[in-house]
């Protein structure tokens, strides 16, 4: 960054994105804590981490702070979010333009990752691309590595409850992983992940309005016009797929890719974190 004002602007926009995600994902801090603690309990602090669809890199930044010796790769397709990530993250994080709908994406990221995360990413992709994503992650993971996919993932066995929780889940529920589905070290959400009885700040309508306002503020910034134009070109013919399969679908995709153990690490309303190992 060339001036302090520009640096402050990047920090403010990234902080605004953090607030946006907290509005869309009830209990987001507990989700991130569950991922961090589980990864460490499984095999110690990871040396290489891949953040798929990492946006402006808020979670990547927190992983870099937690694991200062780790090399982290953030992959995303959005040029605006990639620019915010590059300007806001430490040198230990590599930021890569990557199209996860392209089955060849693993060639860009490299291999040998101990942890791969995809938080609020797969709902943008078509089902066949998500299925392919699991195969790609399997190729880039180091032996014994962990994948965590967190997104809207309603419980197929509780359709009435899931409908009641949509659009505004009033409470946060954390669940243990399926019995025998993940290693004992990651069998339960760590106590540090906590239990949040009320998520008053999670109001989807309000979150959607905040989303529109955040992008509108960027549209008024002359320095971002080229990036915004490039973003419009990318997404003009590829709107979000709004893919929201349940855990059973994700388990089938993961096992077809060669993962032996699957299960949920965390749930909050219709959102869940699915792990594969």
UniProtKB/TrEMBL annotation:
Entries under SUPFAM superfamilies matching the protein: S-adenosyl-L-methionine-dependent methyltransferases
Presence of keyword Transferase: yes
Family matches, as Pfam families: Methyltransf_25
Keywords, sorted A to Z: Methyltransferase, Transferase
Listed GO biological process terms: methylation
Domain Methyltransferase: 49-145
Protein's UniProt keywords contain Ion transport: no
Listed GO MF terms: methyltransferase activity
Listed name of the protein: Methyltransferase
